[in-house]
Amino acid sequence: MSDRSPPAAAGGVLIAIGPLVGVAIGFAFGQATPGFLIGLAAGGAAALLIWLRDRR
Fold first, then answer.
1. Residues 32, 29, 34, 52: is their CA dihedral positive or negative?
2. Mean pLDDT to the nearest integer, 15-40
3. pTM, two decimal places
4. Which parts of the chain span the membrane according to its record (predicted)?
């Protein structure tokens, strides 16, 4: 018996892309570590929002 529900949205990629973008922006300002941490937090928050919206 197959489950015909649509596939779950993938928000994990945001956790990976967030720190990379944060480091790039932080490097431009000479603050790569805070950029990484802010990007990680923003990516995690976005992934959490996608998970909350998509849960069944």
1. negative
2. 96
3. 0.80
4. 7-29, 35-52
